[in-house]
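Memo to structure team: turn this sequence into structure tokens by end of day. - J.P.
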Amino acid sequence: MEAYIGEVIGTMILILLGDGVVANVLLGKTKGNNSGWIVITTAWALAVFTGAYVSGPISGAHLNPAVSVGLAVAGAFDWALVPGYIIAQMIGAFLGAVLVWLAYFNHWAATSDPGLKLAVFSTGPAIRNTVWNLVTEIIGTFMLLFGILGIRGGDVNLGSMGFIVVAILVWAIGLSLGGPTGYAINPARDLGPRIAHAVLPIPGKGSSDWGYSWIPVVGPIIGAVIAALLWGALGW
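Reply from structure team:
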């Protein structure tokens, strides 16, 4: 139970700081309005580091169902714990999104575009194409888990410094691969806040785009499994 609580808290921090920067950049009349992609990707990397650093000693800081599944496929995590971790990550992601909604309470009405409001909570494609959006999420999450496995399996014991390296990895993925779909690379990161968007009383919020919602769930899982299988096949 302690590990599950760690995943709730770590994922909540991840989404609070990650979705929080998107709100700051996209919503109307904020101090950070229109500050751009570099700000978003940098803060998301810092959000990963903060959430992982806080929860790491407690749960191992997966904060991502794709990571939990991928590590289990790689034989580095107990399959029996995977369902509980995923539930905890979803709860944490939902709670983090609610906190963002509260922090930016005055700015939802100050934003006219419903698409920008949804973008605070969930990812979406720059060009909508089911196959290629899915491929992008597979590639991004493959890189995430393959990188994590490399960091875990390195000759140098990084300790808590490993979280900084993972944060840099997420930063690189955002800068290099985030353009087509917004780099969800985490089913909980997308689905938990999307549910929050659907149920919260946000003025003029529009659709939660459930037609797209399966891509940032399925794509990351596929990418993580491929990374784990390749890692195992290489014998590294």
